Amino acid sequence: MALTTVAESEDSVDSCTFATRYMQAPLPRFRLPEKSIPKDVAYQIIHDELMLDGNPRLNLATFVTTWMEPECDKLMMSAINKNYVDMDEYPITTELQNRCVNMIARLFHAEVEDGEQAIGAATVGSSEAIMLAGLAFKRKWQNKRKAEGKPYDKPNIVTGSNVQVCWEKFARYFEVELKEVKLREGYYVMDPKKAVEMLDENTICVCAILGSTYNGEFEDVKLLNDLLVQKNKQTGWDTAIHVDAASGGFVAPFLYPDLEWDFRLPLVRSINVSGHKYGLVYAGVGWVVWKSKKDLPEELIFHINYLGADQPTFTLNFSKGASQIIGQYYQLIRFGFEGYKLIMENCSANAKYLTEILEETGRFSILSKDVGVPVVAFSLKDKRFEHDEYEISDNLRKFGWIVPAYTMAPDAQHITLLRVVVREDFSRTQAEQLAQNIEMVLQALEAHHPKIMEAGQEITTEYDNVEARGDYKEGYQKRRGRHGRHSDTGDKTKGIC
Predict the structure, then answer these.
(1) Lowest mean pLDDT among 64-78, 246-260, 469-483
(2) DSSP output for 247-278
(3) How far apart (Å, rounded) are the C-alpha atoms in residues 208 and 163?
(4) Closest C-alpha among 268, 264, 214, 232 to residue 417
């Protein structure tokens, strides 16, 4: 009798990843493995581990875009192997970047004539954009001081204490003193009057934020500009303004077209904006634009030719992917002014709807403002419950929602708040569901930790006694320390962008 054999096929149990020996082996964590594994096994193992990540669409902590149209996804994936810096090899990609710079600069009313190339660059998010803008201000200030025969070794920059941590990085990395205007209860952005009071001859610029990370509020750039004009006339200085419009740059032109915050103001010399926030592109792209050529010192621009052609470049890095730039151009021509306006109106309407629901509960104070980015920032009114904003945040994760809880910037650290970023893909239905889940969390927490009452009278706790004696900070730290995970170092909240 002839023996027959059956060739192993794709339907064989041996081809099933979960039937292989690799399912019993731990993943390498510290050393490169000695042997390779099949591609389908590598995919399945990594894919399954990533299942433990949060759902990006339910991540209401981030301003960063989490959804784009499939057509744009295809374009971006087709360019994933393109290195943007190879401008001679990929001239059309370079042209698309230039078009984006021109559109954004003109959206912000830059001083450019018809047919003239605007001054700006694509960056890896607003962090790099801020570094470049800060360097331009520092170099201009140094050049002027040298020409005047004055010391140029102690530059400073004035900001609110609510700035994003990348401003602290700029100050530390490039040896610029950071002078912060502290916040106060009820006023959670930089006070322009106090900012101008902090200026001196070594101030390279004042940074104003269009859309605070903490509550989405716009700072009053117009008032800051007017006060600076007066200050410069009195002192002979020429201190200018940089606007950090990372969050609000793609919001204000469409929702508040008459709001003066951009290059319409004479002292606004540069602006950064995040394409990956309300510019509606996946993470990894930012933009910096200058009002005119004279605002970017020529000596900061490098000219290289070893990739095949002369290429002017002003960046902190070299190689970077081209996908996000292509994605940005797609969004700009796909939606145009009309489309961006409709999307921002939807975001704003849904933010207002969620705000109204939370206000109707009577449990929350709303810390976000009507004019600003579509953000809902809120805190508990009654601090005498045993639960707090951190516990609400923790319990919302049971429903899949990621809603951050954090403290305000100095000197308003005693205020703890929750924040919901309303993005393009956050619908009215989701707002309703989130509000229901917040109410369910509150009911569960109150049932587990009811307010301490006795015969209709509130019992004073240890923490209330401390605060009654005037040592508010100690009482606050004790309450916050209940959860054992909230830093008391005084550092700025860093994980909420």
Answers:
(1) 469-483
(2) TTTTTHHHH-TT---STTSTTEEEEEEETTTT
(3) 9
(4) 214
- 209 - beta bridge partners? 244
Distance of CA 375 to the CA centre of its chain: 12
Rounded to an integer, what distance in angstroms lies between the CA atom of residue 345 and that of residue 1?
Answer: 79
The tokens of 483 are what? 């959860």
Question: Own/partner pairs for 468-473, CB < 8 Å, 24+ apart?
Answer: 472/414, 473/414
H/E run at residue 212: none
Q: Is residue 315 scored above 60 in pLDDT? A: yes
Task: Say how far apart CA 490 and CA 34 lie, in whole Å.
Answer: 45
Quick one: what percent of the chain has pLDDT higher than 90? 77
The 10s digit of each residue's pLDDT in 248-271 is 999 999 999 999 999 999 999 999
Residues 414-454 have pLDDT tens digits of: 999 999 999 999 999 999 999 999 999 999 998 886 654 33
Q: What's the one-letter identity of residue 293?
A: K
Based on its alpha-carbon atoms, the radius of gyration of the chain, rounded to whole angstroms, reads 26
Decide if 265 contacts 241 (C-beta within 8 A): yes
Assign 3-class secondary structure to 231-242: HHHHHCCCCEEE
The helix (run of H) or strand (run of E) holding residue 349 is helix 323-361
Closest CA to 288 of 158, 438, 122, 446: 122
